[in-house]
Amino acid sequence: MVGFRRASGVLLVVLVVMATTIVNGTPVVDKAKDAAESVGDKVSEAATTVGDKAKDAAASVGVKVPGAKAGGASLDVKASGAKGDGKTDDSAAFAAAWKEACAAGSTITVPKGEYLVESLEFKGPCKGPVTLELNGNLKAPATVKTSKPHSGWIDFENIADFTLNGNGAIFDGQGSLAWKANDCAKTGKCNSLPINIRFTGLTNSKIKSITSTNSKLFHMNILNCKNITLEDIGIDAPPESLNTDGIHIGRSNGVNLLGAKIKTGDDCVSIGDGTENLIVENVECGPGHGISIGSLGRYPNEQPVKGVTVRKCLIKNTDNGVRIKTWPGSPPGIASNILFEDITMDNVSTPVLIDQEYCPYGHCKAGVPSKVKLSDVTIKNIKGTSATKVAVKLMCSKGVPCTNIALADINLVHNGKEGPAVSACSNIKPILSGKLVPAACTEVAKTGP
Question: Which residues are tagged catalytic?
């Protein structure tokens, strides 16, 4: 009893200190817990209760406590004037809801419905964590309007601690008219149409259960982000949708793509310069152009690509499987510490490809070696079927040859009339281990299919 009275006295002191500190704007819940723990388990439990009350009290006077959820009531976009009828432009209602939520740090809810929006900009920084809870779909105008290069239809920009719960929501870019107006081979202009969804400058954020369909250009662009996770992502567009990369990642550190089904007319996942510590896992890709690092080396001062892992994926009926592509005549660059592992190929043209003579539409300095240095690349446990005879093609730069490229446990079969699958190489001496089908580097790799 005496010990408990002493503990009660300590608690009283803790409460006084906490009340004083909260008024001064300094959260001390953890310090309160530490003090309470020093006098036994019962006191620790009491201090925890006090800590919770302190959080509530702090919230009531506008003081942020670390670990506390964002305050403020949930905001319904229909209360801001959204109709959700698929005909009325609801852009203003979304913008109003975002402005209020960002200023307070709260949740925006989007009820079921079809929300036509001309374009949206969700910009920070915000006063606290913001959650966007989607239960309805967003739809873009079908009309084709040129815009600033690399602009977006839906923009999320400069936000920390952001959560997007899609609950299966669809972002419909209505891009079928745009694909005909965006033929790069004819016009040479590929970036004058909007990207469906842009995540730029996001930190410590999570994107879950959304689908981008029929984008006018890229479906999703992740740029200058740090510690962002995407889960249960859908990408859906037909093979004729030109330049509709599924998910493009660049100049970001700590991106995790965990679970996606991607059908599109370009790369399922494309990885640009400045990407570090990326994990791509459990992605089902096809139709499309496969999972690609690059293209790299098209522009000066590109940032290194370091630490990319692509694993446990299924690639089906695509033009390529896993590949690294760099431009001839490029400025110096680096791509290193790359792992492609545990990947199944189903009827894939060129399942494994390193192409340092990548030159679409003839827009390159043909014959001038790429100066992008590829090193420390492991291609391991790749199995399945190749739609062409050349199942593995490793075509490195003659100016800066690839180094430390490892092939292990590959089993790729081609059943066409051209004969069994082969492996073609140039300017590379790969490190070999395990069983390799086809045998490594039995032919000289040549430019072209």
Answer: 266, 289
